[in-house]
Amino acid sequence: MSKRRVFDIDFTPDTAAVPAGTAPEKPAEKATESRRGPMATAISENADALRTRAEAEQKIRDENDRLAHEFVRLKKLGLVVDRIPIGRIGATKLIRDRREGRDPDLDELKVSIKSLGLSNPIRVEEKEDGTYELIQGYRRLRAYLELLRETEDETYERIPAGLVARGDSLQSLYRRMVDENLVRRDISFAEMAQLALRYAEDAGTRAKSLEDAVSDLYASAGRQKKIYIRHFAQLLEAVGDLLKYPEAIPRALGLELRKRLEADAANLPELREALTRAQAETEEAELNVLRGFIEGKRKPAPRAAAAPRPGVAKTTLRCTVPAGTVRCQARDGKIEMAMERDFSEIDRHKLEGAIAAFFAALEQED
């Protein structure tokens, strides 16, 4: 008699519910886990972690690139502001329109900075050696330097500054400075003219003449303003080395001086001699010298014709000539002739000849 083997079959509830002949379905994840060993699971988890980290790093790099491009864009616009040590700022690249000496408005600016701070940052260009070159804000920088010297407050050791990206042309940097100055109400034509002259002399610019300099620097100014600047520049070329206070010259006086110098070459040495002799120590004294020169060049106004004295005899007559009838009136110091004719059409030289012949005939002896 053969022996039969008996196997115990453990039916789970899910297995029992499966129809005969159908293999029970198992979750794929559990099947995978049941087939993986501990090493395989660790490798898989590490790969997932590395992938997640790489994605995060790429996002950071993309964000850094975006911020870098935005920084460069804002820097080119001069909108990136930092507090720069004033000891690292130079002001030699661009020639300034302001003369050294006392600025009457500087004290007001210093009071404003002490009370409210600097509301309008200066503009600087960063140099390769880590220092900076001033582009705009010469008066503001001077105010900070004086405040630091007067108060020894470390607050004034650094000044808010907009960073201008390197690479701008010299012409562009000059234009930045000039366009800011054009909105200043106190800038004089002499200061603008002086800057144009210095710009024309600067070998680093493309200006070959005063005309080029004015066109480059004051491109945003109106046509008439450019003419005034050129005229003041011509005046400064002639006598600027003798003027101590050219910025005090009013527009009308400067234009009149330039006109007088152009009208007669002999006027230039006369004006230079007057300025040298005067040695004016104040603005008003120097202006008086210039005004005195103008007054001396003005022709005396023609005297008004005197009214006929009572009882003075006069002669009235009519004379017939080929051109028509002439009505004449003669009295002391005056003779009038009138007829129906437009004398303005007659050539000037012909009129002069006729008048000369008229008086020559009067002088002839009978």
Description of the molecule:
The protein has helices at residues 13-16, 28-35, 38-76, 106-116, 138-151, 170-182, 189-201, 210-217, 223-239, 251-263, 267-278, 283-297, 348-363; strands at residues 81-85, 89-90, 122-126, 132-136, 158-164, 315-321, 324-331, 334-338. It is an alpha/beta fold and 366 residues long. The chain has a domain at 77-168: Conserved hypothetical protein from pyrococcus furiosus pfu- 392566-001, ParB domain. It has a five-stranded mixed β-sheet, sandwiched between helices. It is elongated. Keywords: Coiled coil. Residues 87-182 form the ParB-like N-terminal domain.
Give the overall average pLDDT.
78
Secondary-structure-derived class: alpha/beta
DSSP helical segment count: 13
Can you summarize the main beta sheet?
A: 5 strands, mixed
The CATH top-level class label of the domain at 77-168: Alpha Beta
The fold-level CATH name of the domain at 77-168 is Conserved hypothetical protein from pyrococcus furiosus pfu- 392566-001, ParB domain
Euclidean distance between termini CA atoms:
194 Å
Got a strand count? 8
- Share of residues in helices: 40-55%
Name the beta content range.
Answer: 5-15%
Q: Strand-and-helix sequence, N→C?
A: HHHEEHEEHEHHHHHHHEEEH
Strand order of the largest sheet: 1-5-3-4-2
Please compute the radius of gyration using only Cα atoms. Answer: 46 Å
Going by CATH, the homologous superfamily of the domain at 77-168 would be Conserved hypothetical protein from pyrococcus furiosus pfu- 392566-001, ParB domain
Q: Please tell me the CATH architecture of the domain at 77-168 by its name.
A: Alpha-Beta Complex
**Judging from the principal axes of the Cα atoms, what is the shape?**
elongated
Low-pLDDT stretches are: none
Biased composition (Basic and acidic residues): 26-36
Protein name: ParB N-terminal domain-containing protein
Organism: Leisingera daeponensis
Keywords: Coiled coil
